[in-house]
Amino acid sequence: YEMLRRGRLEEMRRLMKYDVYEEISEATYTGEVHDCRWVDDLRENADGAFIRSRVVGRQYAMEWIYGLFAGTPDTLVFRYFLSCLAEDPELVACVVDATSAFLQANLKEPIAVRPPKELRKQGILWLCWKALPGLRIASGSWQDTIIEDILVRRGGFDRCVEECCAVLEPVKEVKGQVHGDDTMLIGHRAQ
Questions:
Q1: Cys-Cys with 21: which of 10, 126, 131, 149 at CB 3.0–4.6 Å?
Q2: Which residues of 120-153 are buried (b: 16+ CB within 10 A; e: fewer)?
């Protein structure tokens, strides 16, 4: 029970850290409301066993909605990167795995959810401004956040027209690809 409590407490800290939601009155909200639940996974690392808890939305695919797309990079891009690395000893690769990626993904429009039953307060909903795992728009929102906001707008990268998951920083000649919450960048050591 103590591992479960610690796992859920850590998830609540993440929700607060990334300002995922605000509490609103259910009586005044007129839009669609989705349920949430806890998903608890028993994991192990060098320190021993622990529970990784997540609050996940429960939004079901009842119809097709435009704008849910999140691309998957063609394996050709990865093979090209490997080829570049093999040919040029001055090139290095950096692979980054984002922690709690969806909780950092900005939503274009907020989504209302009913908190997990263990966290519910009478008449209170969560209005989510960031994505929760399980929401249909979560992966597309994360991809927009990492590529358009972080890499393109803040990092000076250009997005490839033909391959939506590939980017290039033209001045330092750093190439990159995004696959879900994993980003791979290659460039010269001096960069």
A1: 126
A2: eeeeebbbbbbbbbbbbbbbbbbbbbbbeebbee
Mean pLDDT by 10 residues, the chain (191 residues): 92 94 94 93 89 87 61 86 92 90 87 94 95 86 88 92 89 91 88 55
Q: Which alpha helices (DSSP H) does the chain contain, by range?
A: 2-17, 75-87, 138-143
Task: Confirm if 184 and 98 have CB atoms less than 8 A apart.
Answer: no
CA angle (143, 155, 170) in 5-degree steps? 105
Q: Is 95 left (phi over 0), alpha (psi -120 to 50) or beta?
A: beta
Whole-prediction pTM? 0.77
Residue 80 tokens read as 């090209």
Instruction: Please identify which residue in the block is written with the tokens 């290095």.
Output: 92
Q: Report the distance separating Cα 8 and Cα 26, nearest Å.
A: 24
**Backbone phi and psi for residue 110, each to the nearest 5 degrees, phi listed first:** -65, 155
